[in-house]
Amino acid sequence: MSTAVIHDPATLPSDDNVNAYTFCVELKGSQWFLQKGKMIAYYGRIDFNGIGHGRLDRLMRTSFHSPLHASDWVVAEGSGKMLLADRAFDVNSFDLDDGNLTIRSGNLLAYQPSLALKQSIVPGFLTLIGTGKFVAASNGPVVFMEPPIRVDPQALVGWADCPSPCHHYDHGYMTGVMGGVRALTGFGGASGEEHQFEFAGAGTVLLQSSEALMPEQPTGAVGAEPGVPGSHGSAVPAGGHGSAPRLPGQLGDLQRRFGL
Amino acid sequence: MPFREINSRMVEATIAPGQKMFSQRGAMLAYKGDVGFTPNMAGGQGGLASMIGRRVANEATPLMTVEGNGTVMFGHGGHHIQVIQLTGDTLYVEADRLLAFDGTLQQGTMFMGSQGGVMGMVRGQVTGQGLFTTTLKGHGAVAVMAHGGVLELPITPARPVHVDPQAYVAHHGDVRNKLSTALGWRDMVGRGSGEAFQLELSGSGAVYVQASEEKL
Questions:
Q1: Residues of chain B neighbouring A170 (CB-CB closer than 8 A)
Q2: What is the Cα–Cα distance from A217 to A69, expressed in whole angstroms?
Q3: What would the pLDDT profile of B143-190 be if each residue is shown by its tens digit?
Q4: A79 plus A146 within the same structural domain
Q5: Same domain for A159 and A37
Q6: Cβ contact (<8 Å) for B73 and A143?
Q7: Engineered SS bond to A132: which of A51, A85, A112, A219, CB 3.0-4.6 Å?
Q8: Domain B3-210 adopts which CATH fold?
């Protein structure tokens, strides 16, 4: 049985976890980016400025490259200690050393301005590039895995240095007569593990220990531009029926079948 | 096929060719190698009769068969996971608490009334097990889910264990259980202690208790 620990400014850790659910950031005249609403308490003199003011324009240019969702982030500035937490999820800090890491937008809590935050090409993900520390939340502890690996879409937190995240479908299970019956009726287990994210090459894949997703943070819509994934620009993928992928042997739409 | 605990909410299982294991549908988090997942209509082992039996008993949790060659990571809903090794004895557990188990284990359904008659049925209602519970028998490993951490309490003939029915997860071994009531006039007028029902387990074996009174 552990008794409750009472912290004061001197005993709070500097840039480390207080417990599994709280992270303490020490500011000494420095700055941190954090997502709105993730600060739970602070000691000292810390200013929280919404991004988009003229004074922070230079900072924005060097380490915040997603002007489209700038309103979801604030800059903490000053000196003191600041506690970060997110709905009792596990919180962890990670160090990047001249690397790159892509993370689900809802999981990222805060990062040092020495890192540059950019929107990933993969919708709903953000990429951090450079050297520095960032804080991320996850449902259950984060587990690091080496590729090649296939991951349940809901369990994926992010990946570092992996060149090729792609979709993997279990074709033997989804095609054929039984596959058709399953897809049409939902009878016999339509939902299961027939779809994963596949990672190949050298790098690290970050998993959380459950499929409970954190609510996604808007990363901002990308401009409608042909060739940009998720932009809904002029280049509409042919025959996109929403989520269901078109399988070999499956009947297409009339236009497709007639080649129109 | 041993389970390796990666952390409190995630286990890793190694699958070799020719081996088979069952897991709750959708509980796979990631896998390496060449592993296939097939939904299991029958909800476990046995033929059509076993399937109907499970459907009737409402112990038919959607399961899938995991086969192939590689390693699979399992986890579900952020629940804590307890790996239980069975060496020939029988594990009694609710089907929806099963995360994954060895294909070599024999799966069955037990009528609560067969252990203590009407009192057994009442016990099933109080523990949330219903009238039926699932049994797993043989040599192998089972990964069981619980809300909060799991405590393993050994049961010896000299020392029976009393458990809050809501915190009860599973038990194995040669164990008799009965519901002991401490109902009095206080409970009737709404001034009870809230602990009127207790599960008393005696014999030799072990009972698993979760650190929460919340059901899965």
A1: 36-37
A2: 9
A3: 999 988 899 999 999 888 888 888 888 999 888 877 777 666 666 666
A4: no
A5: no
A6: yes
A7: A112
A8: Double-stranded beta-helix (3.60.160)
